[in-house]
Design brief:
The chain has 490 residues and is mostly helical. The chain is built from 24 helices and 4 strands. Among the domains are: 10-78, no CATH class; 93-156; 339-485, no CATH class. Helix content is 58%, strand content 3%. The strands form 2 sheets. The chain has a two-stranded parallel ribbon. Strands 3-4 form a two-stranded antiparallel sheet. A hairpin with a 2-residue loop joins strand 3 and strand 4 (234-237). Helix 15 (299-307) runs parallel beside helix 18 (346-371). It starts with 9 loop residues before the first helix and ends in a 5-residue tail after the last helix.
């Protein structure tokens, strides 16, 4: 936003590791540039609202900040004090009439009174988006004799209006109906869009290997351009109701296209090569791969990713830590798990995940004991002298991931025990897992993290961020121990 307002060069700031905040100072700078209103639309689409830093909750007098979200929880998570109001769309027919005239004025088209009344009387016309969909289609519609039938075909809500839009596109591009369906479903399912190369690769996997595919998809994308967004070199669909309409209209393609996206994201990882520990790069698909596997309810696919170092190293740590530490698969809605407790395979699949994370934890403990034997303090003293930040971060990360893996394993085992009882299936693992957790000594780890939190960033040249993370890990270790102590494995 600061870049757009010509306050600073965002790319240069990011290169130097400096990040701006939504603070009183920022608002004042915007005001000095002549801006008095800042609108942040659809903040519920942000990946992690808690990451938004707001150094000051004070908004300068005379400056307005307007945020919109589909749910009140997102607004509360944003952190600013606010006066809430609900936007219900058009309640006055005069506003609907005005929007229709102004929109069609751009294309030098008009509707007569009866035609406008047909649109205005529709239940969905309270939504500006509903009106926009209809008007956007009518501006390209040339058959005056069937115009009223066309208006009636949009139905009474946004979803039905979008479905009619898809019908219209199929009629216009009869020779490319199959290609359009595949393309639109792939783009709809990819939450942060697809680059042109990724889309071509996905379509190739779906059987479209013609030399002219690129020119054809460019023509088709132009047809849905009003409902698409372009960001980070990728085209996506930003209107949720359009995505819902696509999924509703082409359900037979959903599973296959999700599997294709998984292959495309894995291809991205292979092309990128091995990761360098502590130098994590945001490869497209790193935040999508596990999500797509969850939506397919593919336990084996998830286990493959977590169990394969070449795949796991390309997934952003927050994805498998935050998603699985509580033993849950959330899919699109982080407040609702996608598996039902009474669903077939619930217990056995959760048990498999618990075994997997317990295995990851054992591997981490083995590596720690091999590379960094007790006492930990001695190793810290060595790091003080060497001042090798990369080695220090590797040291810290091993302890961090160990606690996270143990906590996830315990959570999944607890979930497995909540499901339908099958003593023969889960009894053996309960005993093995109990032995593992009882022999894992958290006191040494906690002592190490307590020491680390006072490591002395200025003295060694290591940033205060390391100390902050050490504090977080120390808290996690303590929580993990208490969490495990509260679980009965008998």
């Amino acid at each position: 936003m600061g870049h757009e307002a010509d306050l600073f060069n965002a790319n240069e700031e990011e290169k130097q590791g400096r990040y701006k905040e939504l603070s009183e100072k920022f608002f004042l700078e915007l005001k000095e540039k002549g801006y008095e209103i800042l609108v942040l639309d659809g903040i519920d689409r942000l990946t992690d609202l808690k990451e938004i830093k707001a150094a000051s909750r004070k908004i300068p007098e005379g400056f307005e900040l307007i945020i919109s979200a589909d749910d009140q929880g997102s607004a509360e998570a944003f952190g600013f004090p606010y006066e809430a109001f609900e936007l219900n769309g058009f309640e006055d027919e005069k506003n609907k009439d005005l929007l229709i005239d102004q929109y069609l004025l751009r294309t030098l088209k008009k509707l007569d009174k009866d035609q406008k009344q047909m649109i205005i009387s529709c239940e969905g016309s309270v939504s500006p988006l509903y009106l926009r969909i209809i008007l956007n289609e009518l501006k390209n519609y040339g058959d005056f004799d069937t115009l009223e039938a066309k208006i009636a075909s949009f139905g009474e809500d946004v979803i039905s209006a979008f479905c009619e839009t898809l019908n219209s596109i199929e009629t216009e591009y009869k020779s490319d109906i199959k290609l359009f369906k595949e393309m639109i479903v792939l783009i709809a399912l990819a939450r942060d869009g697809l680059s042109e190369d990724e889309l071509l690769r996905a379509l190739e996997l779906r059987g479209y290997k013609d030399k002219d595919v690129l020119s054809r998809i460019r023509i088709l994308k132009r047809r849905i351009k009003p409902y698409m967004n372009h960001s980070n070199g990728r085209d996506g669909i930003h209107i949720r109701s359009f995505i819902k309409a696509i999924i509703k209209k082409y359900p037979e393609l959903i599973e296959g296209c999700r599997k294709t996206l998984i292959s495309v994201y894995k291809d991205n990882f292979v092309k990128h090569g091995r990761q360098i520990r502590n130098e994590w790069a945001d490869i497209h698909g790193s935040g999508e791969l596990l999500y797509q596997l969850e939506m397919l309810k593919d336990f084996n696919g998830i286990a493959e990713v977590i169990n394969d170092p070449l795949l796991l190293e390309h997934i952003h740590p927050r994805e498998y830590y935050s998603r699985y530490i509580h033993g849950s698969f959330f899919g699109a809605d982080m407040n609702k798990e996608i598996w039902d407790r009474n669903e077939e395979g619930y217990s056995s699949n959760n048990r498999k995940m618990a075994e997997l994370f317990a295995k990851k934890a054992r591997e981490s403990v083995r590596i720690i004991n091999q590379k960094y034997p007790h006492p930990y303090k001695k190793k810290c003293d060595e790091l003080r002298k060497k001042n090798d930040q990369s080695e220090f971060l590797e040291y810290r990360d091993l302890f961090y991931e160990t606690t996270q893996f143990i906590k996830a394993a315990a959570a999944f085992e607890r979930k497995a025990l909540y499901g339908p009882k099958n003593k023969q299936e889960s009894g053996e693992f309960r005993n093995e897992f109990s032995r593992f957790t009882k022999t894992t000594d958290f006191s040494e780890t906690e002592s190490f993290m307590s020491y680390l939190s006072n490591f002395g960033g200025d003295e060694t040249g290591l940033s205060h961020q390391i100390e902050d993370l050490a504090d977080d890990v120390s808290i996690e270790v303590s929580k993990t121990r208490k969490y495990l102590d509260s679980i009965s494995f008998e």
